């Protein structure tokens, strides 16, 4: 894996300090510039002012440290973990650190990005460098005050000491430090000296969450704000013809009814009245384009797999030749439905559009892109648009798309009022940007009981796997290897859903290898480990995973789960996967109750390098595994004449506590730079369960959701 | 519009609202108590759980006209400063990921444990299964309920 940072990255380019009027020191840094090496940092810091920074550390003259972080917090824990990196190198007690969502303005936010389990990986070096730089400046200030060399001084827990035993607190020298030059070279700690990184640090918003304080977009209020409930076309492929709002306008509390595009917004003084008014609208819709059905998608994806219109994403050797020479060709097809995100906090956004400015507030993973889109929509300068992020009640990819913010902005402009758009659950599930339905067909050629060729075909809706994925396992392990993709353009909106593509691809691939091991009569673990041997020492720089690290998580999972030694009546399933720069192996344990498989336990082994915050990391791992199982078991979606057939949790099933296995987590001990955990434990979970169900019932599952496909008489036997 | 006299967290509030307005929206929009969350509006997810005369109830299905003069407790009033044993257990276990559903989870757990403070695992799992956690922090919720039970003995 490549290091995300070039070692020559200059601290000068993203750090600047200043004395605070009321005492203390402010350190500004460009979090996202620092975290995104492809962005060229400006060289001359005298050209920068504090508006050019988007993250700040404030050290007060009493030694208290406030870290203002603009990072979107969707439940992945970065609001806790990223400041830990700064505090570690600054060398302050975590008890003296306060983390605050940054004060925000447009200029700062134009650099903001989030997503893809990348925050910790990219923040690892620059955030520690920022902390270390500040610490060095404090030491330099103390040394100057004492008239000794800085090299004779040390700092620990917010206190600087010199060789003669004198001490000064950070607060004593912070104002002097602010006036010093930013040092160019600082030394980062040896990991063995970490006192914060690697410790269990609770969620920084914990107190607010458990006492019900206002935190989320839905909680946000502003003076004069009205609530908007928006009626959108009931089916993909329909447009608005006419709307009669006469009766709605008579409802007490309804303030206005506004048509925009193919949508109608009911504005009211409270959420309930707006939602009630929306239900009362009498609307005529007309078919505008094709009305699609799930059965159509099923057929279309199958015909794509059988067709010849593919884009080749990776090709090693000659698959065709290998297949022609084979003793046997194994071919299997795996199918998944569309999926909605179903964040617990339904989509919502606040907009206040005035002649002077456009103020947006709410839960969004992509504030910068959203500001630009709103500016284009309203024909305004992007400088007029500010975005403030709230804590998010889940993201899962849905909040990468700012469609709800655009709606709020448009309605606010037309209504000339501050407006909060609030989706009902039905709005949220039916106006989705869904995970696309996908089918994978995997074929392997077998010669002399060895895998000689591997051909993966993807048929997806609207888009295909991104370019790194074809370089995941088993790329490099099989001589003749090819990945082909094809897609069908639908009018149903689709997008990223937690661990895009791999969330289902991993199920297909790890089910396939499990079945191959049965056909070849090779031990399941041995088959995987043998393949990895062939990748070791590869000179192919495109190979994304580390065979050594994947081997290690597999071996540790075997060891920790008691693989092969399950109690009577307990059936195990294995899966191992690399994605989002993290290597994971999982063993699921299934028992049969009334002949139905129940997942009791999952042992999950993770190599994410150094574990920054084990408490938060384990939470992500447990959540990812259970989320993966929940959607593999139950997640279903369908369209009839373009209309989503699932609209709320009475028909759409999410996993609940009584269906939840115990997740036991183990980390591979490592000094490698850390990687993110928001996604990588989800993809392997489905296959681990499917492989355990195969062990329990002899049924091989090829389609998600499992529960629906297991209900057929054939499967239950 | 009728006026209702609501007793929320020990305080009286006169609220003018349509009789069919769910208590959830009265709390959030009229009384500015946003700790109680909107998740589904049909009583399926449990994010809006409050206590009505001490029992866990879905506030999204409860019309304001039905709760006049009843004792309503929300997450804001479960304790002063988060000192309820369930809230303390949630802190000890570091339960939340996104945190959005947790007020509802805590209210369900508090009501359940007030009736049964020696629950076994399957009782906990059944009692908490009406509350969805989309982040799937279920292992920790389960553990925190067990920890809270020991505190409430």
Summarize the structure.
Chain A has 717 residues and is an alpha+beta fold. In chain A, 30% of the residues lie in helices and 24% in strands. Chain B is built from five helices and five strands; from the N terminus they run ββαβββαααα.
Counting copies of identical and different chains, the oligomeric state is heterodimer
- Radius of gyration of chain A equals 28 Å
Structural class determined from secondary elements of chain B: alpha+beta
Which structural category do the helix and sheet elements of chain A fall into? alpha+beta
Mean pLDDT of chain A: 90
How far apart the termini of chain B lie comes to 46 Å
Q: In what range is the share of β-strand residues of chain A?
A: 15-25%
Most extensive interface, chain pair and sizes: A-B, 65 and 58 residues
Describe what this molecule looks like in 3D.
The complex is a heterodimer of chains A (717) and B (153). With 717 residues, chain A is of the alpha+beta class. Helix content of chain A is 30%, strand content 24%. Chain A has three domains: 200 residues, Aldehyde Oxidoreductase, domain 4; 148 residues, Aldehyde oxidase/xanthine dehydrogenase, molybdopterin binding domain (Aldehyde Oxidoreductase, domain 4, 2-Layer Sandwich); 279 residues, 2-Layer Sandwich (Aldehyde Oxidoreductase, domain 4). Chain B folds into two domains: 76 residues, Ubiquitin-like (UB roll), CATH 3.10.20; 68 residues, [2Fe-2S]-binding domain (DNA polymerase, domain 1). Chain B is 35% helix and 15% strand. Chain B has five helices and five strands. In chain B, helix 2 packs across helix 5 and helix 3 packs parallel to helix 5. The longest helix of chain B has 15 residues. The chains are: A alpha+beta (717), B alpha+beta (153). The interface between A and B is large, with 65 and 58 residues.
């Amino acid at each position: 894996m490549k290091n995300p940072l070039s070692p020559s990255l200059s601290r000068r380019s993203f750090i600047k300090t200043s004395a605070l009027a009321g005492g203390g020191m402010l350190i500004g840094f460009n979090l996202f510039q620092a975290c995104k090496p492809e962005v060229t940092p400006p060289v001359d810091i005298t050209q920068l002012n504090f508006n050019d920074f988007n993250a700040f550390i404030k050290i007060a003259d009493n030694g208290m440290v406030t870290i203002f972080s603009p990072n979107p917090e969707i439940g992945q824990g970065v609001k806790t973990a990223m400041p830990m990196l700064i505090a570690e190198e600054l060398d302050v007690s975590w008890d003296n650190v306060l983390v605050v969502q940054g004060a925000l303005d447009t200029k700062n936010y134009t650099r903001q990005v989030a997503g893809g389990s990348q925050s910790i990986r990219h923040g690892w070096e620059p955030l520690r460098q920022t902390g270390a730089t500040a610490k060095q400046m404090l030491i330099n200030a103390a040394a100057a005050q004492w008239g000794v060399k800085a090299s004779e001084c040390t700092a620990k827990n917010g206190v600087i000491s010199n060789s003669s035993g004198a001490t000064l607190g950070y607060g004593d020298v912070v104002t002097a430090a602010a006036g010093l030059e930013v040092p160019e070279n600082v030394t980062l700690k040896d990991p063995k000296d970490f006192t914060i990184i690697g410790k269990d640090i609770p969620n920084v918003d914990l107190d607010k969450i458990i006492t019900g304080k206002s935190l989320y977009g839905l909680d946000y209020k502003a003076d004069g704000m009205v609530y908007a409930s928006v009626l959108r076309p009931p089916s993909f492929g329909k447009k608005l013809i006419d709307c009669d709002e006469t009766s709605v306008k008579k409802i007490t509390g309804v303030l206005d009814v506004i048509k925009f595009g193919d949508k109608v917004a009911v504005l009211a003084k409270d959420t309930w009245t707006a939602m009630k008014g929306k239900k009362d609208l009498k609307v005529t819709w007309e078919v505008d384009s094709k009305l699609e059905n799930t059965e159509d998608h099923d057929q279309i994806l199958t015909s794509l797999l059988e067709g010849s219109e593919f884009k080749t994403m990776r090709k090693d050797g000659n698959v065709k030749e290998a297949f022609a020479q084979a003793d046997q060709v194994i071919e299997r097809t795996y199918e998944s439905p569309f999926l909605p995100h179903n964040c617990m906090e339904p989509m919502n956004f606040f907009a206040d559009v005035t002649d002077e400015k456009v103020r947006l507030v709410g839960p969004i993973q992509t504030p910068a892109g959203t500001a630009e889109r709103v500016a284009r929509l309203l024909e305004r300068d992007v400088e007029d648009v500010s975005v403030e992020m709230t804590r998010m009640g889940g993201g899962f990819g849905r909040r990468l798309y700012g469609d709800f913010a655009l709606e709020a902005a448009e309605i606010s402009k037309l209504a000339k009022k501050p407006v909060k758009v609030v989706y009902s659950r039905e709005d949220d599930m039916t106006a989705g940007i869904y995970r696309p339905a996908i089918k994978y067909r995997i074929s392997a050629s077998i010669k002399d009981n060895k895998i000689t060729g591997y051909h993966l075909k993807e048929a997806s809706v609207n888009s295909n796997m991104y370019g790194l994925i074809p370089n995941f396992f088993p790329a490099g392990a099989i001589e003749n290897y090819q990945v082909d993709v094809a897609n069908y353009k639908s009018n149903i909106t689709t997008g990223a859903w937690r661990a895009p593509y791999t969330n289902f691809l991993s199920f297909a691939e790890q089910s396939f290898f499990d079945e191959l091991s049965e056909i070849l009569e090779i031990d399941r673990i041995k088959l995987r480990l043998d393949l990895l041997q062939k990748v070791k020492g590869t000179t192919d720089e495109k190979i994304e995973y580390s065979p050594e690290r994947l081997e290690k998580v597999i071996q540790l999972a075997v060891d920790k789960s008691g693989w092969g030694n399950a109690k009577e009546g307990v059936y195990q399933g294995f899966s191992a996967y690399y994605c989002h720069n993290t290597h994971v192996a999982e063993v699921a344990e299934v028992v049969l109750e009334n002949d139905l498989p129940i997942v009791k336990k999952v042992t999950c082994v993770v190599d994410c390098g150094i574990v920054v915050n084990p408490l938060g990391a384990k939470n992500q791992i447990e959540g990812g595994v259970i989320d993966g199982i929940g959607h593999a078991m139950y997640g279903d979606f369908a369209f009839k004449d373009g209309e989503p057939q699932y609209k709320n949790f009475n028909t759409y099933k999410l996993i609940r506590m009584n269906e939840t296995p115990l997740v036991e987590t183990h980390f591979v001990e490592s000094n490698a730079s850390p990687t993110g955990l928001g996604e990588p434990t989800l993809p392997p979970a489905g296959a681990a369960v499917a492989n355990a169900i195969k062990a329990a019932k002899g049924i091989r599952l090829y389609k998600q959701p499992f529960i629906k496909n297991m209900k057929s008489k054939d499967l239950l036997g | 519009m009728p006026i209702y006299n609501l007793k929320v967290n020990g305080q009286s509030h006169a609220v003018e609202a349509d009789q069919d307005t769910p208590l959830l929206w009265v709390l959030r929009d009229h009384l500015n108590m946003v700790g109680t969350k909107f998740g589904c509006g049909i009583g399926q997810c449990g994010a809006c759980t409050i206590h009505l005369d001490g029992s866990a109830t879905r506030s999204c299905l409860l019309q304001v006209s039905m709760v006049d003069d009843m004792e309503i407790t929300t997450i804001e009033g479960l304790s002063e400063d988060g000192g309820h044993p369930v809230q303390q257990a949630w802190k000890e276990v570091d339960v939340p990921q996104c945190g959005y559903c947790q007020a509802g989870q805590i209210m369900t757990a508090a009501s359940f444990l007030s009736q049964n403070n020696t629950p076994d695992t399957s009782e906990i799992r059944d009692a908490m299964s009406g509350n969805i956690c989309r982040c799937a922090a279920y292992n920790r919720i389960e553990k925190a309920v067990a920890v809270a039970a020991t505190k409430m003995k």
